[in-house]
């Protein structure tokens, strides 16, 4: 299988990381993870050394692989690392589990207890896993390891030899097979529109909008509308009403920034369907049914409640920031000034969520769906309600039942 390297600098043509299949390589130190990933990618991505613990932090590479399409390869630190720093590296490796669609688990030594613990973790999270006995050209324990894996899993592992092209080709075929089993043909618009439908996008270009560019949810939605052959009209808030007057008929669908939900709803034609970018991404990336159920928790919260706001991307706070300024202001108006609001961003997400009465997540355009669903599952397991920005604002605006997704 050929691999086409996707230039990291070619941002106009690159696929967002959140839309790529994430493949993680896991194993003990010096089990050959980095070498195998390099052979799989056809280039040197991770540093390879016989020294234990060479890979200290996760190493990622965006690629285009025939049979899979856009993907992200992730090399991880050995999960048998030792010492205080080793424990921190293991925690980072565990954090990668939240992101991956496929796990490649390497076995090299006779003692496979730790590998089996990780396999159970992957199975608990419904992550398809490829079992590999690494360094098959020099591994004297192949027969014993294979029998132990077979005894514990009833699965015969693959053998990997980075110097044997047939072995690497077999690995690629196995991973492609797993990738095809997890890829879901999910769309942002979710059959809300058809060819030639008129769709009006209301996109305020305020201080939060990047200068000269559109935010990622807007870009991806526009592209999908164009691919669906819709008649797509984009306006700011100021031109919204005048644009409706210019149209002979009402648009089939209006997609707005959630922050101006009330204004758009109050002025929309009766026949036009209404949603927001954040609501669409709630369904595209997460579990919108759980989000809708959870948002009703707001009516039971008290002034001593604890709320967590989670942003997928990392950015410098702005004066009109929705997650740090606008949503907290709405919450305090609804519940009381004394509520406690914690804010995390990027990959930061507490392991213990039990102190929180509600989690509010952004649209998560920077995360893949697996990562968002992992966080939702963590919330469910700890009995913590979780919703997202768009659902929250629609509910507080008393129009949630009028919004489509």
In brief:
The chain has 405 residues and is of the alpha/beta class. The chain has 13 helices and 15 strands.
N-to-C SSE series? EEHEEHEHEHEHEHEHEHEHHEHEEHEH
The CATH superfamily name of the largest domain is P-loop containing nucleotide triphosphate hydrolases
Residue-averaged pLDDT: 88
Low-confidence runs (pLDDT<50, min 5 residues)?
A: 1-13
Distance between the amino and carboxyl termini: 38 Å
Number of strands: 15
- Please tell me how large the radius of gyration is: 24 Å
Polypeptide structure, described:
The chain has 405 residues and is of the alpha/beta class. The relative contact order is 0.11. It has 13 helices and 15 strands. It has three domains: 180 residues, P-loop containing nucleotide triphosphate hydrolases (Rossmann fold, 3-Layer(aba) Sandwich), CATH 3.40.50.300; 83 residues, Rossmann fold, CATH 3.40.50; 117 residues, Rossmann fold (3-Layer(aba) Sandwich), CATH 3.40.50.11410.
Task: Please specify the SSE layout and strand pairing.
Elements: E1 3-4, E2 21-26, H1 33-41, E3 59-65, E4 69-75, H2 83-96, E5 102-107, H3 113-124, E6 129-133, H4 142-153, E7 158-159, H5 165-182, E8 198-202, H6 216-227, E9 231-235, H7 240-246, E10 253-256, H8 261-266, E11 273-276, H9 277-285, H10 288-295, E12 306-311, H11 322-335, E13 340-345, E14 358-361, H12 369-381, E15 386-388, H13 389-396
Parallel strand pairs: 2-4, 2-5, 5-6, 6-7, 8-9, 8-10, 10-11, 12-13, 12-14, 14-15
Antiparallel strand pairs: 1-3, 3-4
